[in-house]
Amino acid sequence: MSEEGRSGMKKADKILILVLLFLAVGFAVFFFLRADVGGYVRITADGEVKAELPLSEDTLFRVETDTGYNIITVQDGYVSMQEADCRDQICVEHKKIHLTGETIVCLPHKLVVEIVGEKEAEFDMVVG
Question: Which end of the chain has the lower number of beta carbons within 10 A, N or C?
Answer without folding.
Answer: C
